[in-house]
Amino acid sequence: MRFLAPFDMISVVSIMFKATQEWVKQAEYDIDTAEQMLVAGRYLYVVFFCHLAIEKMLKAAVTERTAQPPPRTHNLILLAQLAQLPVPQEHTEFIGKIGDASIVTRYPQDLSQALTEYTEPIARLYLQHSKEVLRWIKEQLP
């Protein structure tokens, strides 16, 4: 039997909670769905699924950092605070912006008006920035 010297055991395995992994998987599925909605020309749903993806990735962070299930909320700012993430300013601003947009895209009072507000270029911007935020949050996980 060979004993390892201390320097032979440097490798550290990073393991996420199973619940965290599930949130990450769902967030990735939702951002893929947002991309498909862009291709289909369903721009309101691009924004909706971008918000949903960020929400789920933040719930992954809450789960991983607190070892507790996240609250049932759509409030991205609250979730970021609960996860105790040092969110960069540009991501904080976007999280607030997409949080406001999610109300309109989830429950439009006037569908025609919402469809004129959320055009293809706007949807592309939301998708691009959402991917950046998701990448950043995921980097904060083990």
Please sum up the structure shown.
The chain has helices spanning 18-40, 43-66, 76-82, 89-106, 111-117, 120-139. It has 142 residues and is mainly alpha-helical.
Search tags:
disordered N terminus, elongated, 142 residues, Four Helix Bundle (Hemerythrin (Met), subunit A), mainly alpha, 6 helices
Structural class: mainly alpha
Relative strand content: under 5%
Rounded to the nearest angstrom, the distance between the terminal CA atoms is 32 Å
Globally, the shape reads elongated
- Major sheet size, sense and barrel closure: none
Low-confidence stretches: 1-13
Q: Per CATH, which architecture?
A: Up-down Bundle
In which range does the helix fraction lie?
55-70%
User: What would CATH call the homologous superfamily?
Assistant: Nucleotidyltransferases  domain 2
Q: What is the CATH class designation?
A: Mainly Alpha
